[in-house]
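Subject: Carbohydrate ABC transporter permease structure
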Amino acid sequence: MTDTARSPGAASADPTPPQATFEARRAQHRRRRRIRRLAWGIPLWILALLFLLPFAWMISTSLKPDSEAFLIPMQWIPDQPRWENYREVLLGEASILPAFMNSVVVAVLRVLGELATATLAGYSFAKLRFPGRTRVFIAYLATSLIPAQLLLVPRFVYFQQLGLYDTLWALILPGMFTVLGTFLMRQYFISQPDEFAEAARLDGAGEFQIFFRIYLPNAIPMISALAILTFVWSWNDYETPLVFISDPARFTLPLGLTNFVDETGAMAPGLSMAAAVISIIPILLVFLIFQRRFIRAMTESALK
């Protein structure tokens, strides 16, 4: 060690202890990270509030008489909430309960059928070897390029000849076979290792045993995501019931919402919004039940 390094002047040139310097840098890093979070968080919070604004208006309007629905400036919290709107929507002459039950039946059967066909078809295209597998899959995938509206007339004629027109089966059967569901499940199964199946075959397992006992349990997150998507599509489908259903007793919820009109034939905003609030409750419940698996499936799909 030199004499210069031992001199008192050199010791007083850097009086800050190393621990204090480390704490200062750490505090500065935390401060910068907090600022970055605020810079990203505030715009996202504003966007989230903008997306929630229509829902807030819907709930507020559902508790008002029709005469106050479009007043400006708007009163977000009514002085006297009109709960009679909900009572009339549920128990009145134009009750939505029959349409609600029709929607439940259609959505549940569509989800079950879609999961059964999509998982089996996806597994077949991903793991089974047969001649023309890729060509068949591409041909099946190409059918998604045809707009659904172009198929409405052929389906109408077809279901009419089969005697399924104006029945709930006209809504259920087409929803059981979708290209997107098969594609999603095929992409998931193809990402799974083939060694699982080879080891199971060496132990004497058949294809159905390999599918049901090995690959299907691992696909639960993707199956949950597909179930949520199918349920939402079925629940909000307005076009298909409009074409294939004419009997009001078989209306689903989107058609049932059109029944709430006033004396002039115009939409009754209070009753319509009360029915709309009730109609979104099942979707919220399904999402809350399966949200963890849905997020996990979306995350795994993004990483692969």
